[in-house]
Design a protein that fits this description.
Number of domains: 1
Radius of gyration: 11 Å
Number of strands: 6
Helix content: 10-25%
Order of helices and strands: EHEEEEE
Largest sheet: 6 strands, antiparallel
CATH class: Mainly Beta
Distance between the termini: 13 Å
Shape: globular
Strand order of the largest sheet: 1-6-2-3-4-5
Number of helices: 1
CATH architecture: Roll
Length: 82
């Protein structure tokens, strides 16, 4: 398992670039996200199905159903590579 920790000062564009360098479409990942204002950590596991504008698509789901906004990503762990 490999991990990517996003620097706290990374903007959406930089975070997307870092994530694209770290994972590939089809990889199974765990994404830990932190809402910047609330400070609550959540974890989502799924297969990467797209690098959409503004969010990392997991399991073909839209943003409200399991995908994660780039500006909320704290760490990405690759569980299984495609």
């Amino acid at each position: 398992m490999t991990n990517l920790t996003v620097p706290p000062d990374a903007d959406t564009k930089r975070t997307k670039s870092l994530v694209q360098e770290h994972v590939d479409i089809g990889d199974t990942v765990e994404v830990r996200s932190e809402e910047r204002t609330a400070g609550q950590m959540t974890a989502v596991t799924g297969d990467v199905t797209g690098f959409e504008p503004g969010y990392l698509e997991l399991d073909g789901q839209p943003l409200d159903d399991g995908s994660v906004r780039y500006d909320e990503i704290h760490t990405v762990s690759t569980i299984e590579s495609s």
